[in-house]
Write a structure and sequence with these properties.
single chain; alpha/beta; 12 helices
């Protein structure tokens, strides 16, 4: 499972602040040392990190998506263990080590070739997790990783899956070489993704050609931010409910691109988007009302290569993970 590094109990302990009279989530979670131990672990959910930004830079974006994993893990491990979420539900498997790729610079073609290498590694690990009946939770990296996650789940289950995505962008650009803007296109073309629903597209950032294509495709459902929040033609709850209805009847990946949340640090950060509360509601509703195959939180950063920083992204990601854990069935 190279270049994957398993998290040990000692690794996690180094991230936890112990307080007398309290039990932190990180004190209760599971770890394993080898792939064959995953099936014997009682936890249903498996957390992995994808600290890379190659796919973002291959899409002409600002690097930094690699920075979210460790701060988010630290934030998650230090929340309180409660009756609603004990920590025993979760296996913290570890994270990929794409540091060599992340450090590389080069032309777009080279970055897209590197993104294909990321695809290959991610799909293998996801497939191993799903084959033993576990549900992956994936943090970090660009939205390019939707493709290998969907691929891994589909290969493990032997059938195409559905996917729901809350995003300002469709990520359905042309299959012009792998990057963060075309993961769902590749997943459809390669026969891994069946139905796709995307909530809250921004009219300013989706091309006329792509919008026309997805509207005409009966396997794709979409709604627009402006229709929901500006023109108020439907409520946010109604938009999410329609998307959930579209992906009913099969295992469904739950995707959230953090660049659709107003003020959250990401390569394509927006001043005008959904609120953090609405992001949490979306995760809760989808986890409750779909046959959740995985959760993928993409594009968030605590530090971008242009110098911008925001440590609160990590805490938000921890909230979103716990919302999923509490609501998924």
């Amino acid at each position: 499972m190279e270049p994957f590094k398993f998290a040990s109990a000692a690794d996690l302990a180094a991230l936890i602040t112990i307080r007398p009279g309290e039990t932190k989530l990180g004190e209760q979670v599971h770890t394993v040392a080898h792939p064959h131990e995953i099936s014997g672990c009682n936890a249903r959910f498996v957390l992995i990190g994808l600290p890379e930004d190659v796919g973002v830079r291959a899409n002409l974006g600002i690097g930094g998506a690699a920075s979210a994993w460790e701060p988010s893990l630290r934030a998650l491990l230090n929340i309180q263990a409660t009756d609603r979420l004990t920590g025993r539900e979760l296996l913290v498997l570890g994270a990929f080590n794409f540091s060599e790729l992340t450090a590389k610079t080069g032309d777009v073609e080279g970055l897209r070739a590197q993104t294909e290498l990321v695809d290959e590694s991610v799909a293998v690990v996801i497939e191993k997790i799903v084959r033993v009946g576990k549900v992956p939770i994936v943090i970090g990296g660009g939205h390019n990783n939707a493709y290998p996650i969907i691929q891994g789940v589909a290969r493990a289950t032997g059938k195409m899956i559905h996917c729901i995505n809350l995003d300002a962008h469709s990520d359905y650009r042309a299959a012009e070489g792998r990057h963060s803007g075309n993961g769902f296109r590749y997943a459809r073309q390669q026969g891994f993704l069946d139905r796709y629903a995307v909530v809250g597209l921004h009219e300013n950032y989706n091309s006329r050609e792509i919008v026309a294509e997805i509207i005409q495709d009966p396997a794709i459902h979409c709604s627009f931010y402006e229709d929901i929040f500006i023109r108020e033609q439907q409520t946010f709850r109604q938009a999410v409910a329609a998307a959930i209805h579209h992906v009913a009847g099969a295992p469904c990946g739950i995707e959230l691109d953090l660049d659709c949340i107003a003020g959250v640090l990401s390569s394509a950060a927006t001043p005008c988007g959904i609120t953090t509360l609405q992001a949490r509601q979306y995760i809760n509703w989808c986890a409750e009302e779909t046959e959740a195959a995985y959760l993928h939180l993409a594009e968030g950063a605590v530090r971008l290569e242009d110098g911008r920083t925001d440590a609160s992204t990590a805490k938000l990601i921890a909230y979103l993970v716990t919302d999923f854990l509490k609501a998924a069935h």
